[in-house]
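Open question from group meeting: does this chain pack into something compact, or does most of it stay loose? Before anyone orders reagents, we agreed to write out a predicted structure and look at it together. Recording both the input and the output here so the notebook holds the full record.
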Amino acid sequence: MFSKNFQTGQPNLQAVSYAFLGATAIVVAWAFSGPVFNYSETWQLVINTGTTIITFLMVFLIQKAQNKDSKAIQIKLNELIAANEKASNRIVDIEDLTEKELDQLHCYYEKLSDFAEEDEDIHTSHSIDAAKRNQNYKQQYFEKKHNEWLQKQPQKKESI
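Structure tokens returned:
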């Protein structure tokens, strides 16, 4: 939305000030021209039409600026995720997921938050990868116990 200084990356507030002053000058000139045009409907229509058109065009400019800022923030977050050895890299491109998939992840992170609140140690980490390892461990443990149980079944039949 704002132009930025090339060297510092900071918004160029001088350009914003000129745009504001220009818009203010147009409104003041329009207001002072009222008596000349006898405050006619055409006089009112000029400012209404002008502001409507400018508002319509500004929506697109603002949306473009927000999309650019959003993309920049996503790239920065992706870099932080990629750089952190404990962060799950599967989260890097979640903006491409469906709304339903995002809702599932949101519920998952709410549960992680609940786990973190219950922990006495503030350094305990809960992540998707840790949960996956835990799930794999549970699955392997279940399969091991199930196989042991299956092996005992024929022995029970033979002992009867």
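Observations to bring back to the group:
Residues 41-83 form the longest helix (43 residues).
The chain is about 70% helix and 0% strand.
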